Amino acid sequence: MKTDLPTIVWFRSDLRISDNPALCAASQKGPVIPLFIWSPDEEDFAPGGASKWWLHHSLTKLEKSLDRIGGKLILKTGTSLEVLKSVLQQTGAQAVFLEPSL
Fold it and tell me: Structure pTM?
């Protein structure tokens, strides 16, 4: 059921738009707010140079892909829960979709 209320799609490790289950499900509900949160302190390991290089280029490609379909990626740094609460409050989004954990 479509609604005017936005849904956040929290991109974590699945940084693609094609065949992305979270993005697909959220887009069926209504407006989508794409979000990526950089929170290296919450990771099991400190990201090295190669990981940061990969992430930079993957986020750049994601931004371009979202731009082609009319979306704008929001990039935030901080504790995931705090950032999510802030973005929910600022946008009025009523749901958060993300890829399932492996």
Answer: 0.90
